[in-house]
C-alpha cells in the first residue's frame, strides 16, 4: 500500500489526531511545516510556509520570525486558510487498519463505514503469540497446535450480585436527589444518605476487585479483568466535602528514599504516583521535596492531567476546583487541605501524548508531616477532590 500518512486535527466529524493515509500527497498549504499535522485552519506566512495554530502560538510575541527560515513577518501579513471538511472528505484514502491486507481505496467520507466491517487488521493469537489477519483468526485458532493459555474468569454469581447492588444504589441515590431538591432540605439526612452511599460504593468496589477469583468451582465466563490489575490504595479514605464533589485516595510510596536523596549539592527531589481517574479525568501527582538548609525541607504537590479513556466524553478545558488533602492516618482533624489553581492553557487543555504541564500547591514543612504521624510504612496518603 503506497500513500502518504497525515494526522488530522480540528475537524468536527473525525476523532482528534486521527491518522489517515491519503492516496495522493496533500498540497503544502494544507500541512503544518513544523509538526506535520493537517489542521482545519492553517496560517500562511509571507515567506510561504504554513503553520498550525499550536505551532504559531509557540512563537514569542514580538519575535515575528518564521521558525523554518527565520524570515520576519507581521501579524497582519498572516493569511488564514480554512480546509473545508466537505473538500477533505472527497479525497481518496487507504484503510489504515487493514494495511496491505485490505484493498479499500475510496473517499474519506466512506472510510468510517468501511472500518466498521474491515477484517484486514492483524491480531495476536493467545495460543502461539503469532500475528494473524482477523478475517482468518477463527480458522487459525482451530488449527493452532500451541497450548491454550489459562483463561481469566469472572464469577457469574459475583457479577449478578454486583448488578443487584448497583440497582439498589441507583434507587437510593435518586431518593437522596429528591430530598436535596425539596423546599425544606434536611441537610443532616442528605449528608448521612450520601455517606451511606459512599460506604456501599467502597464495598462494591472491593467486591468487584475480587470477582475474578473462582473459589467455588462455579460456572465462569471469560474475562479481561485479570489482564491489567488496578491498584486500589487501602489507606485513609475521606468523603467528599459537598454534594456534587468527587474524591479519591492516592499514595506516595517509599517516601523516605526521596528525603534521603537530598544530600550534598542535591536540593530537589520529586516523588510520583501512578495514574488515577476521578470524575472521568485521568491524572497523576508529584510530591516535590526541596531542601532549604540542613534543618528545613519543604514539600509541595503537583497535579498533572494525563490522557485517559474517558477524554472524549468529558468537558475541556478542565474547569473543576481541585483540592489536595494531605491525609492523617488516624485523626481527620489534622488533615491539611491545599487548593490547586488550575489555570493556563498548557495545564487545563485536553492532554495529548505525555500529558499536560502541572499546577502546584503551597509548600508544607516535611518535618511536621513526619513528627505528626502522617507516614505509614514509608507511604504518604493524599485524597484528591474535584468539585
Automatic annotation (TrEMBL):
It comes from the Eukaryota. The keyword Zinc-finger applies. InterPro entries: TRAF-like (IPR008974), TRAF1-6_MATH_dom (IPR049342), Znf_RING (IPR001841), Znf_RING/FYVE/PHD (IPR013083). Residues 32-69 form the RING-type domain. Coiled coil: none annotated. The keyword Zinc-finger applies. GO terms for molecular function: zinc ion binding. It holds the Pfam family zf-C3HC4_3. Keywords: Metal-binding, Zinc, Zinc-finger. This is RING-type domain-containing protein. It comes from Amblyomma americanum (Lone star tick).
